[in-house]
């Protein structure tokens, strides 16, 4: 095998509705990208069979005389047991309990397979190639339908004892608050995520409050999204502003907790709701200054993610490059 073959990782982002499969080079360069449907409703076995075949086809397509794959990286939202290669639960994949996805895919591939939480992958991606370059102690918080997170401590990805560290969305903020997807009550995700914002707007409009939000969705209340609430808030709609402010306050409380626990130099906010910009981040920063200790609150900078939807893919690939280097190419 010639020494100068370029190395690549096949990075897979397995979501609830679609799968993104990308070939990534060291340095975060994406050389191919394709989307497929997850078809989660067909069941675990069908999803894994399909994923396996998509992976093998992608490897065969991209592999060439000059490109050699180092491994396959599968990023998934949820609680993963990295050591055993299991998805123990995932918000996007209902019914998945202790599914041995790593070994199932590896059995049908000649390449080593690695699992990584999608937000941990995002943290690594932003740290290496995005807004976090040069920051050795940083957090990545992704705020979209759900809220996830990843931790870079002393320049390295911290994943905890089992591999499921960084579930910032599921810290309890209000003990008797609304029920979360995870079953717990009053999680940050149940108070400040896109899902929580939309749900609050739908409930209050259905209870008779009037709002411009209803016009944004042409009266189809059940179609209200966080984006619709943000659009109405930009027009100074009272209810929309109230809902966004409340979510921003809760986000700020969550971030203040993180600032006191981790003393990060930087918190990168990604995910769809980061597009709300100052509407969400300004009040959140005010809460950090109000609630966190003065020293870490003064140190931390809150910035928006730079890589958008690519953070998870390049981070998942980088994770494999690093693991291969650490183990000298052995699994
Ligand atoms: Zn939760």
Which descriptors apply to this entry?
alpha/beta, binds zinc ion, 5-stranded mixed β-sheet, 331 residues, single chain
What report would you give on this structure?
With 331 residues, this protein is α/β, with parallel strands linked by helices. 39% of the residues lie in helices and 22% in strands. The chain has helices at residues 44-62, 101-106, 118-129, 189-192, 194-206, 213-216, 226-234, 238-262, 278-291, 294-299, 311-326, and strands at 6-14, 18-25, 29-37, 67-76, 79-81, 86-89, 113-117, 138-143, 147-153, 156-158, 266-270, 301-304. The chain has a 5-stranded mixed sheet, sandwiched between helices. Strands 10-9-8-11-12 form a 5-stranded mixed sheet. It has a two-stranded antiparallel ribbon with strand order 5-6. Helix 8 (238-262) packs across helix 9. The chain is globular. The two termini are 20 Å apart. Bound molecules: zinc ion. The site of zinc ion has 6 residues, from loops.
List the helices and strands and how they pair.
Blueprint lengths: L5 E9 L3 E8 L3 E9 L6 H19 L4 E10 L2 E3 L4 E4 L11 H6 L6 E5 H12 L8 E6 L3 E7 L2 E3 L30 H4 L1 H13 L6 H4 L9 H9 L3 H25 L3 E5 L7 H14 L2 H6 L1 E4 L6 H16 L5
Parallel strand pairs: 1-4, 4-7, 8-11, 11-12
Antiparallel strand pairs: 1-2, 2-3, 5-6, 8-9, 9-10
Bound molecules: zinc ion.
Zinc ion binds next to loops.
| Helix amount | 25-40%
Distance between the termini: 20 Å
Q: Specify the overall morphology.
A: globular
Q: Average the pLDDT over all residues and give the rounded result.
A: 95
Q: Element order, helices and strands?
A: EEEHEEEHEHEEEHHHHHEHHEH
Radius of gyration, rounded? 20 Å
> Ligands in the structure?
zinc ion
Low-pLDDT runs of 5+ residues are none
How many strand segments? 12
Biggest sheet, open or closed, and with what strands and sense?
5 strands, mixed
Strand order of the largest sheet: 3-2-1-4-7
Output the structural class.
Answer: alpha/beta
Number of helix segments? 11
Beta-strand share of residues: 15-25%
């Amino acid at each position: 095998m010639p020494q100068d073959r370029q190395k690549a990782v096949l990075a897979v982002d397995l979501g609830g509705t679609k799968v993104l499969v990308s070939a990534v080079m060291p340095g975060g360069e994406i050389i191919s990208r394709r989307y497929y449907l997850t078809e989660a409703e067909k069941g675990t076995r069908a999803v894994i069979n399909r994923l396996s075949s998509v992976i093998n086809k992608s490897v065969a397509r991209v592999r060439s005389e000059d490109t050699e794959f180092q491994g396959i990286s599968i990023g998934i939202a949820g609680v993963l047991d990295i050591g055993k290669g299991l998805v123990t639960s995932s918000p996007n994949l209902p019914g998945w309990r202790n599914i041995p996805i790593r070994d199932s895919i590896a059995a049908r591939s000649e390449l080593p397979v690695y699992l990584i939480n999608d937000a941990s992958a995002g943290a690594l991606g932003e740290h290496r190639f995005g807004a976090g370059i040069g920051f050795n102690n940083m957090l990545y918080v992704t705020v979209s339908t759900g809220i996830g997170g990843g931790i870079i401590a002393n320049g390295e990805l911290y994943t905890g004892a089992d591999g499921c560290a960084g579930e910032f969305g599921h810290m309890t903020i209000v003990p008797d608050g609304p029920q979360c997807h995870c079953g717990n009550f009053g999680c940050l995700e149940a108070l400040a995520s896109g899902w929580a914002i939309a749900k609050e707007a739908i409930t209050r409009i259905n209870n008779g409050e009037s709002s411009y939000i209803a016009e944004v969705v042409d009266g189809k209340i059940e179609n209200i999204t966080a984006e619709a609430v943000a659009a109405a808030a930009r027009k100074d709609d009272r209810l929309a502003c109230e809902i966004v402010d409340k979510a921003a306050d809760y986000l700020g409380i969550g971030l203040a907790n993180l600032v006191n626990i981790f003393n990060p130099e930087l918190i990168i906010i990604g995910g769809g709701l980061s597009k709300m910009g100052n509407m969400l981040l300004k009040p959140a920063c005010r809460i950090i200054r109000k609630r966190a200790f003065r020293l870490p609150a003064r140190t931390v900078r809150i910035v928006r993610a730079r890589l958008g939807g690519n953070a998870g893919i390049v981070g998942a690939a980088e994770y494999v490059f690093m693991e291969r280097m650490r183990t000298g190419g052995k699994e």
